[in-house]
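Next comes this protein.

***
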Amino acid sequence: MRSTLAVLLACSTIFVAEAQNVVRPKDVRDAAKAGPSAIPKLAEYLKNPDREVRLEAVKQIGEIGTVRSLDPLISATRDSDSEVQIRATDGLVNFYLPGYLKTGFAGSIRRVGTDLKGKFTDTNDQVIDRYVTVRPEVVAALGAQVGSGGTMDMRANAARAVGVLRGRAAVPQLVDAAHSKNSALIYESLVALEKIRDESAGPRIAFLLHDPDPKVQTTAMETVGLLQDKQALPDLIEVFNRTRDVKVKRAALEAIAMLPAESSRAIYVQYVSDKDEKMRAAAAEGFARLANPVDLPTVQKAWDEEGKTSPRLSLAFALVALGKTELSQFSPLQFLIDNLNSSAFNGIAHPFLVELARNPQVRSALYGPLASGTKDEKIGVSRVLAVSGDAESVAQLQKLSNDPDADVAQAALTAVRNLQARM
């Protein structure tokens, strides 16, 4: 009898001890209150057999977001649970782009039974500044997820992350993912390739110009255009002539305009006066990049007659590219600069100015509004010069970094860092 009681007592003691050692998500949150010093302990929780504990650990490590968070988050991208992997991915991006944890895919996911439900945001234009250096191990971990993540959402999320971080080393995995059968993964991989701008990828994704999914097809057109894949031009023209889908036709013409060729002039001439304003705009952009002075009268006439802002911006782009680089009250270049003040059209004016500022005459003309323009003009021109500036631009931006407006001064400093990184 005594021996039986002793055994029972021993068993109960072991049970209580084990119960006291059980880790709960609340324990993880409590540990995280210590901040960065808690990272080693939180990293140990990533090995816990309880999924909920690992999930809470990866959340807390991502939110702490110091450089010591990177190694545990890289490790968590290899977790057996898809949500842990997704949150680890977004945590890695958040270190280089603060705030991403709220805007990324992880911010929208919820678990319904054994399935994850989430939604990718429609906005996919986030990207780190050029001066930001990402650890190779981070890009390698995300590239591995793109190639062999457990779910398609996980792989698509990793592809988006690679694009945000400009992860050039993961281009092979993105190209392979573009050959998958999942439209979301293909789309995210294409947009990532656009952000990275590795032109060698262009010919390897051109087959998607004939994809049956219009979203994939139009994005592929944009991608081959941005990656300057001139070999894709015949296929683009074939799709342009054959399709009856208005959106596909617009996208095809926009891509054709990115790959200027004398053989496309007839298309530009035909559509610069089309009833569809987006087709007119795309045709004007073709004239701009073809940059043949013989087209100046045609473009000037279209500019004089155009009443819509969007195609008018494209025509201004063409006129400046064709030599009208003067800066005066009603000049095309001034029209582009004026629209940096517009929330509706600055997203159109900015990339046009980036292209035009590669011309030294245009670049020099921009130093005027950089010094005396409105707040939005100063910030906008700073961002233009960050991409297309030269050594003289550095000096001009450094002057602007003393602007009394803190936002303008910060934009100028950021532009200097990006420009110096590019140079």
